[in-house]
Amino acid sequence: MSDEIKRGLQSPLRRKLLMGAAALPAMALLPRLAFGAGPPTAAVNTTGLAVTDTEVTVGILHSATGTMAISETGSIQAEKLAIEQINAMGGVLGRKIKVIQEDGASDWPTFAEKAKKLLVNDKVASIMGCWTSASRKAVLPVMEQYNGMLYYPTFYEGLEQSKNVIYTGQEATQQILAGIDWITKEKNAKSFYFIGSDYIWPRTSNKIARKHIENFLKLKVVGEEYFPLGHTQFNSVINKLKLTKPDVIFTDVVGGSNVAFYKQLKAAGIDLAKQTLLTISVTEDEIDGIGGENIAGAYACMKYFQSLKNENNEKFVAAFKKMWGDKTVIGDVTQAAYLGPWLWKATVEKAGSFDVDKVAAASPGIEFKGAPEGYVRIHENHHLWSKTRVGKAKLDGQFDMVFETADLIQPDPFPKGYQ
Amino acid sequence: MIINSRFFNRSELIGFVALAALLFVILPLSLDVFRLNLVAKYLTYAFVGIGLVLCWGYGGILSLGQGVFFGLGGYCMAMFLKLEASSPENTKIQSTPGIPDFMDWNQITSLPLFWQPFHSLTLTILAIILVPGLFALIIGTAMFKRRVGGTYFAIITQAVAAILTILIVGQQGYTGGINGMTDLRTLKGWDIRPDHAKVMLYFFEVFLLFGCILLAQFIRLTKLGRILVAMREQEDRVRFSGYSVANFKIFAFCMAAIFAAIGGAMFALNVGFMSPSFVGIVPSIEMVIYTAVGGRMSIFGAVWGSLLVNFAKTGLSESFPQLWLFGLGGLFIAVVLAFPNGLSGIWADHVQPRIDRLMTWRKPKPAKAWTDSSVADGAPAE
């Protein structure tokens, strides 16, 4: 029997055992793991959420279908893994987490509709979800109106802060500035060329990058181009790259466009071993589509790489592959999505309550020492303190970490001097 | 018995009463506010469907770009609501308070000129009707006067839908880009988000919908409606009889555009949201599918089609988040293969003859009515 088949058999069986174990009175032998041993429901749930003596319901809201499914599937998997692990440890306040999954279908209004359904109909205690900025912007008014709690995993443009959202990815200044400083020093760069997809995140990120490069580093941005989402013809901009010869190409092209961009770059003879390219939008997930041979040599700047060498990450990668198969890869957002359920658990336990107001108030200062990226902590502004790392893409689709900031970087969603 | 002498014939009257009962009584009584708000969202597509019945079902002009007009109407409404939500107090965190948040993110420091009229509700309502109407007039005149029709016209409407999407996405400082306009809050100080407002908006929308149904029925019954049908069947004969075919086509297309725009405006009000994902090619084709499922020859069919397809969409996606699209696709294929005239075709072929027979048994009719129903009895579907 091959390894793969064995795992396929093992994984559902293990889940069944876990679930069976939750219900079996045999669990009385291990009182710590029995659900229903927590504080009385009336005390931990004063706002009518879906919490019983043995169960608490949370929602997962990502695109399982549509163009974003390829990116969001990793987040769904990570969140389910975290929830399964939490349940195996005895749940939250003695209650097993039950998941209601909804499909946002890569369609922003559908996200809003489903978020409302989760909050109004299902009374979920929190939602792990959203991916694109557009889906978050659509869901945000719903979260605020019905007082929900959203754990949002993607690195994003900042300029936002809400009582009802915990941002587990990096905001733009956290992600970008340290990376640009490092590459400027390392490559002695003088000129930059920006290429991005045309929506709010690349535009805001590039604005911040440009202010940093021009006002603080006193260097030059020689070009800035945007392409519609899903665009696949990059020849004109590649010609301009050849003419202007920037020291660093800085890209935030997202989704499927990446595949076309890096293939055309290679076909046009731009060798990433010689030409420095720094991307903030390509994770291991995207390389899966681009092909390692097309992007090897490029630098990526974010907070997590699958290849990080620490004990937490090794355990996380092993558990993830055991649950979802050996071929899966783990990108920055997937790891950030994994943090969501853990941070929520820690916050609920600190607050001693599932009530959204108490969870929101207890969030600042919550730590998670078991994070695969290393220690993280929630800031007063509901973003995470995190390190920034630069990785160099290898042929096998993984990154070699070449730089890491010494300290955690403070999240600053409304950066002064960058607006 | 001359059917056309009455505004509704008997079967249409049954359809009208059934729909009115469903929308005014049954749904509001049986659904909670959340689901009722979803129905309000589905019904916004019914406006588009009614327009498509006029222009495609009767006039034979297939437009695959109704999302353009739905979007224009929706954006006009959303711009008004967004301006109201962007009062200086609400936006004092921005570098330029008083303008919509997405403009501030894009370094725009004053409200662009074309946004100014949307401070006024009256001008906004005019814009909802006139902007799409004029746009349809321009496209229609350019196409139909040159006798561009059929497939070519459908392709051009698709192109327009694609162009408008790219325009909206590209000009994000002025339009909100791919995110669209979110976080719409009040209409003239009246909060559109709480439950009681949702119920009011629902009833307002249903009233508007019935207004549009009656208007469409009126157009159908006038000479104009009959010319449209004649045009669909034999365009050249109508032209040779001395009618200006182009003008009639332009009229039908403009009416469809205006209906779609009203739907779009209601969408922005009910959902509190407008984005380019309702403008492009895919939503435009979806709107045609709703009409096809309902039956493109039936005004009521368009409403039923929008309701049922969207109910199926929500229901399937809630129960099977990973697989629902396949189920929905299968449903469309089944409907088109088995019932090419849509739901209204099923009704006309299977249900209506039985009702007719029941009615005629109870009340003996003159001989002519008997021959009518015997024709129906001989229909292949029996």
Please provide a brief summary of the model.
Chain A has 419 residues and is an alpha/beta fold. Chain A is built from 14 helices and 15 strands. With 382 residues, chain B is mainly alpha-helical.
Tell me about this structure.
The complex is a heterodimer of chains A (419) and B (382). Chain A is of the alpha/beta class and 419 residues long. Chain A folds into 2 domains: 3-170 and 309-385, 3-Layer(aba) Sandwich (Rossmann fold), CATH 3.40.50; 172-302 and 389-404, Response regulator (Rossmann fold, 3-Layer(aba) Sandwich). Chain A is built from 14 helices and 15 strands. In chain A, the strands form 3 sheets. In chain A, strands 7-6-8-9-10-14-15 form a 7-stranded mixed beta sheet, with helices on both faces. In chain A, strands 2-1-3-4-5 form a 5-stranded parallel beta sheet, sandwiched between helices. Chain A has a 3-stranded antiparallel beta sheet with strand order 11-12-13, covered by helices on one side. In chain A, helix 6 (172-187) packs across helix 7 and helix 9 packs across helix 10 (284-290). In chain A, 52% of the residues are buried. In chain B, helix 2 (33-58) runs parallel beside helix 8 (195-221) and helix 2 packs across helix 12 (281-294). Chain B has helices spanning 10-30, 33-58, 66-85, 101-105, 121-144, 150-170, 172-175, 195-221, 223-233, 235-240, 245-271, 281-294, 299-319, 324-338, 342-362, 367-377; strands at residues 186-187, 190-191. In chain B, 42% of the residues are buried. Helix content of chain B is 72%, strand content 1%. Chain B is globular. With 382 residues, chain B is mostly helical. At the A-B interface, strand 2, helix 4, helix 5 and helix 7 of A face helix 2, helix 6 and helix 13 of B.
